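Glycine betaine ABC transporter substrate-binding protein
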Amino acid sequence: MSFLGRFVKSAAFAAAALGLAAGAAQAEKKDLTIAYVEWSDAVVATNVVKTALEEKGYKVKIVPLSGAAMWQAVATGEADAMVAAWLPATHAAYYAKLKDKVVDLGPNVTGAKIGWAVPTYVDIASIEDIKKDPSKFGGKVIGIDPGAGLMKASEKAIKEYDLPVKLIEGSDATMVAALKDAYAKKEPIVITTWTPHWMFAEWDLKYLADPKGVFGGEETVNTVVSTKLKDEAPEAYKILDGFKLSLDDEQKVMVENNKPGADPAATAKAWVAANKDKVDAWSK
């Protein structure tokens, strides 16, 4: 074989090798991490989308974090996605700081809201009414995890309404436990809360009016992904982009999750199996 022939053959092999390497580099990523906050609605949405992705061949790890850490994980690429971004108000500070480092795919749930609520047997209608007799509520408002957007808004509400009350830090679970105990005794209680949440199906509750608009209006819960996901896992990106749940669907699954011995992964799988048309639409 002539030198030229050997050169052409070697170049062909090199080109083929480079082509294979490029193909390997472009192979779709199949291991995904989804960050979430352990709120009832986020547990549902995260497990449902995890199941949908797993049915498409992905291996999905879900990681519970605080709200701030959840946003940071997606921004750094440690997590590929989250389906628990409350916008435009509750997570406004996180979004303002990290919006250039993430991709907001828009709402997966609409009609969400945050605020304070009381059982319907409590005879007040507005946040302002708490000031008339704060001792009725033990001088406190029962909160959730410190640093949550809802807690920051609640701190602002206490200042704006000049309320002589203390905001009690805890978690979704401890807030619900306090509500359950007070409700059983028909005692007054003020809780920080949000929709969607299964507690509204469990007990008769009412939001307190917020004439100063501290808690904002209707919100959406958005899907936010890493800037690399579209290139690394385009099919997963498409599913996450199409992911949608109605308030009714999400709250029904929340109720199932609240039953004794319930497993959120199992209830999510049951919902996905029973709602194939909705799930299939996410990837179209």
